[in-house]
Specification:
2 copies of one chain form a homodimer.
Chain A lengths: L4 H9 L1 H12 L11 H18 L2 E5 L6 E6 L5 E7 L19 E6 L2 E5 L7 H18 L5 E7 L9 H7 L1 H4 L3 E4 L11 E6 L1 E10 L5 E2 H4 L6 H11 L21 H9 L4 H5 L15 H7 L2 E10 L8 E2 L2 E10 L5 H14 L6 E10 L2 E2 L5 H13 L5 E5 L4 H10 L3 E4 L14 E3 H22 L1
Parallel strand pairs in A: 3-6, 3-7, 7-17, 8-16
Antiparallel strand pairs in A: 1-2, 2-6, 4-5, 5-18, 8-15, 8-17, 9-13, 9-14, 10-12, 11-13
Helix pairs in contact in A: 1-4, 1-15, 2-4, 4-15, 5-14, 13-15
C-alpha cells in the first residue's frame, strides 16, 4: 500500500504556495473565444508547461490550427493515466457585474469558516486542473516519484468549440493513449459529497423543414384549401410523445437499459426531489416519462426535444399568411447503447410518414454522438469512490449528467479509452457568469482527493 | 323602364375621352403608405372632386387624421345608393421590373384584339371607380339626370390600413347612410363572366404565448424533466383539427350554415377544379374538411390556421435549449353567423385546457370581424345579376371571397347598410405588383355594366 499520509501532510503545509501558483495562472486572461486574447492563451499554456517541467514532467506546448495544447509525460509504474483539463476561460462580460477584477483573484470569506477563490477560471477549469498538478507535485516532493505513469493533456479551446481537439487526438493517438483518462471538469454532488459521473447522455440533432406551396399564401384566398406547413409540423412534433411522455418513434428505446434498482435507490438517497430541481427554474412537475424520478429522467432516460421552431410571420402585429415552409430544430438525448445513426433514420422515417402527398420535407443533420456509460460497478469507479469517500464528510456517489462532455466521447472513440470523471466544482460556482468562484475547500481537498485516487489506482494496478 | 340604349351608345362614343380622364387620374402618384406622396394623394382627391362637380355632384374633399375622403352627392329619384372606391394606390417598387413608367399609363395590345391599360392603379382601384363615374356622366349627358339618388365615398387610405375610415363613417353616418352600397373593388370570374361577390369570410386573430420555466434551459441538464413550451404549443395546434380536417374547438361550427345545394351546383358549374386552384401554387390536394370542393372550402367554410410560430433558437446551427416560451399567431376565418367573440373565447378555453399545471398561457387579440353574407337570392343580387348578364358574353355568377373587405363590414356595422360587390378586375391584373394592368374591355364594358345596373335598380325601386 502506498503511504499517502506524508503526501497529504505536504499538501496541507503547502496550501499557501499552491494558492500562489493558482493565482499566477488565474491572472492570465486566457479567453479563447476572443482573438484579441490569443497571446494570453498561449502565455497560459507556456506557464503550465513550465510549471509541469518544474515537477519533472517532460512538457511541451504544441501548436494547432487554433490555440495550443499542453502535453506532458512523467514516467511511473502501475497504470498509465491521461489527465485532461482545459486552461482557457470564458469571456468576462458583463464586466460591471463583477465585484472584483476577474483576473485579480482573491480569497474571500463569504460565511464564517467558508472561504472561496474568486476570479474567471477559478472553478472552470484552472482551479480544478491545478488540484491534480498539486497532487503530483506533492508526491514528487515526498516520494521523489509519481505513483502511476502520468500523461497530461491541457486544452486551450474548450470554451470555444474545441475545433483542434479531434485532429490533435487523431494525430497523436499513440502518444496520448493511456489505460484510462482522468477528467477534472465536473462538480461534486454537494459541498460535502464528492461525485463520480458515470453517465453522459449522447445527442442527435436534426433540423426539419416542411414545405408546402411554392410561395407564401394569403390565408383568406387559400385558407381551407391549401396545406399549412406549420400545422403539419406541429402535428409531427405533437406525435413524438404519447400521453405518458414516452417517445413514440418506432425503435427509439432500442439499446436503452433499465437503471439497476440499487442505483435508483442510491439516487433516491441523494434526496433531490422534483421540487428541488425544478423549483429554481419556476416549475414543479416533471414533464418526461411518467413514474420516473427527475434524476432518472435527466441522467438515464432518452429524450426528444424541440429546441427551436419557426414559420410564417412572427413580427409585431399580424399577417394572415399561410407560409410556404416551417422548420424546427429537434434534438434527442441518448442513453446507454442507443445508436445515433439509427435514431436519426427512425426519426426521419417517422416524419416522412406524416407528410401529406403534396408536401415535402428536408432534413439537415446537426451532430450525433452516442451516450457514454461506465458500468456503475466498474473497478475504476469503485476504486475512486472508495478513495474519495476517505477524504470527504460523506461517501462519494455515482451520478450522471444529462448533457455531454465531448472530450469523453472523443477519448472513447479515437483513443479507445474510458474516462473517470471527478471534479470538485459546486453548483453555485457561477461558471460562465460574473463572480465565478471556487471553494477553498474544493481546491485543498481536491488536491488531497487526487493524491488518494492516484495512490489507490497504483495499489489496484499492482 | 329606363331607356339605357342612348346611354350605352354615349359610353361607346366617348370611350376616348373617358380614357383621357382615367389617364389623368392614373398620372397622379397617390401612394398612401409613403408620407412623401401625401401631397399627391391630396391632388388625386382634388382631381376627383373637381371631376364629380363637372358632372353635377356636390363634391368635397374632407380632411381626416390621415389622407382625405372625397364625398359627393347627387339628387335623384328611386333608391339612394352609396358608391365606394379608393383612389390611393400601392407603392411601385421594385421599379426596374416595370416595363413602362407606372405613372405614365399606356394602352397596349397584348394579344390580337386584346388591349390593356397599364399603370399603377389601373385596376386597383382607379380604373374600377372611374367605370362608375363614367356611367353617371353618360346618364347626365343623355338624360340630364341620374337614375337614382347617388352618393359617392372615395377613400385615400385603403392601401395603408384605412385608419380614418371607421371614425369618418361614425362622424358622418347620417350623411353617408344610403339604402345600400355599391363597392367596386373585386374581380370578374373570368374575362367573359361577371361576378357578384355575396360572401366575405370574417376573421379572428389570436397570438398565443405558452410559458414554462422562468428562463431558457440547457436541454442536457433539464431535458426530460422540464416542460418544453414548444412541445406544449405544438400539441395544442395539432389538436385544433381532427383527421377529417374539421376544427375541434367545441362550439366552433355554431352559426355555420350548409351552402344551398343549388349554390354548390352553380359553383361546380364554374369548373374550377382543385388542380386549377392549387396547381399554380405547387399543390394538388385540398387540405381542409374532407368531402367538400375547394371553392366551398375557401368561400363558405370556416378555418383555423397558424400564420406564424416562433420559439427557442432559430438561427444558424444548433443550440440545445429548452426555451422559456413559445408563441404562435392563430387566425380563424369565419362564415355566416359565427360570432367572433364566442370563437375567441372558445379558442382560449380550448388552449387553457391543454396547458399543464406549471405552465401558463397568454393571449393577445388581433382583430375580430364577422363574416358578411348576402342572401344568394336577395332582390339586390338578382337585379344586378340580370343586368350584368345582359352586358357580358356569359351570365353573371355569384361568388364569395375567402378574405375580407373591411369597408363592407364597416358599412354593415356602422351604417346598417348592405353592400353589392361588383368589379371588373381579372385575376391576372397584377394588382400590388409591377406592370399592373386593367383590360380595356373591363373599363369599357364596366361603364356599360354600371349603366345597366343603375337603370335596373331605378326600375326596381319604382
Amino acid at each position: 500500500m502506498t503511504d499517502i499520509s506524508p503526501v497529504l501532510d505536504h499538501l496541507d503545509r503547502s496550501i499557501g504556495e499552491s494558492l500562489e501558483r493558482l493565482f499566477g495562472l488565474l491572472a492570465i486572461p486566457s479567453i479563447s473565444t476572443d482573438p484579441a486574447f490569443a497571446a494570453e492563451v498561449r502565455r497560459a499554456a507556456d506557464w503550465l508547461a513550465e510549471d509541469l517541467r518544474s515537477i519533472g514532467f517532460e512538457a511541451s506546448v504544441r501548436d494547432t490550427t487554433g490555440h495550443p495544447m499542453v502535453v506532458a509525460h512523467h514516467p511511473g509504474e502501475g497504470p498509465h493515466v491521461l489527465f485532461y483539463g482545459h486552461y482557457d476561460v470564458q469571456p468576462v462580460d458583463p464586466l460591471p457585474l463583477w465585484e472584483n477584477d476577474p483576473f485579480r483573484p482573491e480569497i474571500k470569506e463569504i460565511a464564517p469558516g467558508r472561504k472561496v477563490i474568486t476570479g474567471r477560471g477559478a472553478s472552470d477549469d484552472k482551479g480544478q486542473l491545478m488540484t491534480f498538478i498539486e497532487a503530483c507535485r506533492a508526491y514528487k516532493a515526498v516520494h521523489g516519484k509519481l505513483p502511476c505513469r502520468i500523461s497530461i493533456l491541457l486544452e486551450g479551446e474548450e470554451e470555444s468549440g474545441s475545433s483542434s481537439l479531434k485532429p490533435f487526438l487523431e494525430e497523436n493517438a499513440s502518444e496520448l493513449k493511456a489505460d484510462f483518462a482522468l477528467v477534472c471538469d465536473t462538480s461534486m454532488w454537494d459541498a460535502e459529497t464528492p461525485a463520480i459521473c458515470v453517465g453522459l447522455r449522447g445527442l442527435v440533432g436534426e433540423e426539419v423543414t416542411v414545405k408546402a406551396a411554392n410561395r407564401d399564401l394569403h390565408s383568406g384566398s387559400y385558407g381551407g384549401a391549401a396545406a399549412n406547413p406549420i400545422r403539419i409540423l406541429a402535428k409531427v412534433l405533437a406525435d413524438l410523445h404519447d400521453e405518458n411522455g414516452r417517445v413514440t418513434i418506432p425503435g427509439f428505446y432500442e439499446g436503452v437499459e433499465e437503471t439497476p434498482p440499487e442505483v435508483l435507490k442510491s439516487w433516491e438517497a441523494l434526496g433531490r426531489s422534483a421540487e428541488m430541481l425544478l423549483g429554481p427554474i419556476g416549475l414543479a412537475h416533471p414533464a418526461g416519462e411518467k413514474g420516473r424520478s427527475v434524476l432518472e429522467l435527466v441522467w438515464a432516460r432518452p429524450t426528444a426535444e424541440v429546441n427551436g421552431i419557426h414559420g410564417g410571420y412572427t413580427g409585431e402585429g399580424f399577417k394572415t399568411v399561410i407560409p410556404a415552409e416551417a422548420s424546427a430544430k429537434v434534438s434527442f438525448r441518448l442513453v446507454h447503447k442507443q445508436d445515433p445513426d439509427k435514431i436519426r433514420d427512425a426519426f426521419r422515417a417517422f416524419v416522412r410518414e406524416r407528410i401529406p402527398a403534396d408536401c415535402s420535407v428536408e432534413f439537415a443533420p446537426h451532430g450525433g454522438s452516442p451516450a457514454i456509460q461506465l458500468s456503475y460497478d466498474s473497478p475504476l469507479v469503485k476504486t475512486a469512490q472508495a478513495a474519495l469517500s476517505q477524504e470527504w464528510p460523506k461517501p462519494a456517489v455515482t451520478t450522471a449528467m444529462g448533457g455531454s462532455i465531448p472530450v469523453v466521447g472523443d477519448f472513447q472513440k479515437l483513443l479507445g479509452m474510458e474516462s473517470l470523471l471527478v471534479g470538485f466544482g459546486l453548483a453555485d460556482d457561477r461558471i460562465h457568469s460574473p463572480n465565478e468562484k471556487y471553494e477553498l475547500s474544493s481546491f485543498h481537498k481536491g488536491q488531497r482527493s487526487w493524491a488518494r485516487i492516484l495512490a489507490a489506482l497504483a495499489d489496484e494496478g499492482r
